[in-house]
Design brief:
Blueprint (H helix, E strand, L loop, with lengths): L7 E6 L3 H11 L5 E6 L36 H9 L19 H18 L2 E4 L3 E7 L2 E6 L3 E4 L1 E4 L22 E2 L17 E4 L3 H12 L6 E5 L27 H17 L4 H15 L5 H19 L4 H12 L3 E14 L2 E8 L5 E6 L1 E4 L13 H8 L19 E3 L5 E7 L5 H4 L5 H24 L1
Parallel strand pairs: 1-2, 1-7, 2-3, 7-16, 8-14, 9-10, 9-14, 10-11
Antiparallel strand pairs: 4-5, 5-6, 11-12, 12-13, 15-16
Length: 467
């Protein structure tokens, strides 16, 4: 209850998976609060990650491991069986017997779980962008393009910021259609010709999506994909594995300690006939226990030095996309390089690119028809990505986390102000909280943290009601 004896109002800014998951776990407690989600997209729960309608874009983990409910791993799979959602997608099943659905299918699943609450009015969807959030007494006033809401509690669950444009491209040919800075927008790849030579900046999952989309369009031209380390995402284990290894007793004390223990555990797993996948899964699952216990300096070392290697082992590519990439590599139509763009210029309708090879003084020239950015979100600049976040930072209510991975908060998701103190009634949900929480890019961990944030809000509301 608020000061007027009415139900509390919780405003959630962002209706992608993270925001929808928080709303779901709040609404599951009947009549707890009025829940309002600000999301410009018409479909709640899909967001950028699961809103793609490209049939080549698939979940990078099996459907059997995706769920909105932390304690029911097969919830999504049960929904698929009940709704026959894969009837028109026979290619979703990989050789390992698991299904890797189109990402839009998972977006529909999440929306279906939210839909009854929308119909009953337990959750309200304001299809609008938020312009500002201002402190008002003990709560917040959220002003959007269409109207405003007085909220007792606010949750920031905004979308990923745009990728960072490499320095070599900043201000250079900025309006040139041959430089595609956001391949996720509708029609972004539509003007590319089948024989175009393409340079992709980034070698992770976004790169895989782009290659798969181009391949489905009949593209056969040479593609070069570059990144600082030239690493690409690994594939899944051929058979299901139980997480293997203990990384909490004792807790690792440093980045090198964690690295050595991981390597030793992988060697031990292989001696027992298990692959590295089981060990990485154990590290991922136990990160919520050991990550907060590490010093800031050690967490920074992990983020700066080990993260590229972690990412390619943690975020595995769907078998369908892996097959496409392997085929193109073997055909000589796809090459991976550890390099960065040093210079870019236009000549005779094509792009001259000078690449600087990593850990080397060598330079390599390439002539391409298009450059596509696939570097992933620039989380370090999230507070500059939207006006209301910039204003909250200027007012001292939020600050960037010390690892430049998102927004600073405590382990319950409560935002930390410029002095490092928890801000009353303001929470951060989703991957933007990972510097404090640990592994928060994988869906199981995002789901679990959404439930944590919802529980923390309920505790805050109960304490507020007592006073």
């Amino acid at each position: 209850m608020n000061e007027l004896g009415e139900r509390s109002t919780v405003a959630i800014i962002g209706g992608g998976f993270s925001g929808a998951a928080v709303a779901y776990h709040l609404a599951a407690h009947k009549n707890f609060a009025r829940i309002v989600i600000f999301e410009p997209r018409p479909l709640l729960g899909a967001g950028l990650a699961y809103g793609s309608e490209d049939p080549q874009h698939r979940t990078n983990v099996p459907a059997a491991k995706m769920s909105l409910l932390p304690d029911k791993e097969t919830h999504f799979l049960d929904w698929i069986d009940r709704t026959n959602a894969l009837a028109n997608d026979p290619d979703s099943f990989a050789e390992d017997g698991f299904s890797y659905p189109r990402r839009s299918i998972f977006g529909r699943y999440v929306h279906d779980q939210i839909a009854p609450f929308l119909a009953s009015g337990a959750i309200e969807h304001i299809q609008s962008r938020v312009r500002s959030i201002q402190r008002s007494n003990n709560g917040w006033v959220i002003r959007a393009e269409h109207g405003s809401v007085q909220a007792d509690f606010a949750v920031i669950a905004t979308t990923h910021p745009e990728p960072r444009v490499p320095d070599a491209l900043s201000g250079v040919l900025s309006d040139d259609p041959r430089i595609i800075t956001d391949a996720t927008t509708t029609g972004a790849l539509g003007d590319l010709r089948p024989d175009d030579k393409i340079l992709i900046v980034g070698t992770g999952l976004t790169m895989a999506d782009i290659v798969a989309s181009l391949d489905a369009r009949g593209h056969y031209g040479k593609i070069t994909a570059i990144s600082r380390h030239g690493l690409r995402s690994k594939g899944h284990a051929p058979l299901p594995l139980v997480p293997y290894g203990n990384f909490t007793d004792p807790l690792p004390q440093s980045a090198i300690d964690l690295l050595r223990r991981t390597r030793r555990t992988i060697a031990d797993a292989e001696a027992n006939g298990l692959s590295w996948h089981a060990v990485i899964d154990a590290v991922r699952a136990q990160a919520k226990s050991f990550w907060p216990a590490l010093s800031l300096a050690e967490r920074r070392r992990i983020a700066l030095r080990l993260r590229p290697y972690w990412d390619v082992h943690r975020f595995r590519i769907a078998p369908q996309l892996e097959s496409i990439i392997r085929r193109r590599v073997e055909a000589g139509a796809l090459q991976f390089m550890a390099a960065a763009i040093e210079n870019l210029s236009s000549r005779d309708g094509r792009l001259d690119v000078l690449l600087r090879l990593s850990r080397s003084d060598r330079r390599l020239a390439r002539v391409v028809d298009s450059v596509i950015l696939a570097t992933g979100p620039d989380h370090g600049r999230v507070l500059a990505s939207q006006q209301f976040l910039t204003e909250l930072k200027a007012q001292g209510y939020v600050r960037p986390d010390p690892l430049h991975l998102g927004i600073d908060c405590d382990r319950q998701g409560r935002a930390l102000d410029s002095d490092g103190k928890a801000v009353d009634r303001l929470w951060i949900a989703g991957p933007l909280a990972r510097a404090s929480v640990g592994e928060l890019m994988g869906l199981p961990q995002v789901t679990e943290f959404a439930a944590t944030v919802a529980g923390s809000i309920r505790e805050g509301a109960e304490e507020f009601a007592l006073h």
